[in-house]
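Postdoc handover notes: sequence design on the structure in folder B. Input tokens:
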């Protein structure tokens, strides 16, 4: 059974914590994509970045 996390008296679901961790992992990848101009290799950058975030989030949910 999953337990809620207590942040300053506010109970947060474990999924929310994983969502924040996935977002923190996504930020450097987004910056790297800007630096290497990933839009040259992908058809739609927004779809690519959304898929990347979903992959990070699902990996965290499955393995953590």
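Designed sequence:
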């Amino acid at each position: 059974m999953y337990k809620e996390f207590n942040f300053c008296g506010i109970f947060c679901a474990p999924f929310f914590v994983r969502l924040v961790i996935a977002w923190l992992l996504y930020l450097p990848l987004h910056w790297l994509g800007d630096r290497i101009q990933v839009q040259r290799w992908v058809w739609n950058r927004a779809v690519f970045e959304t898929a990347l975030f979903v992959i990070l989030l699902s990996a965290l949910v499955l393995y953590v």
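Context for whoever picks this up: The first strand starts at residue 5 and ends at 7. Don't rerun without checking with the PI first.
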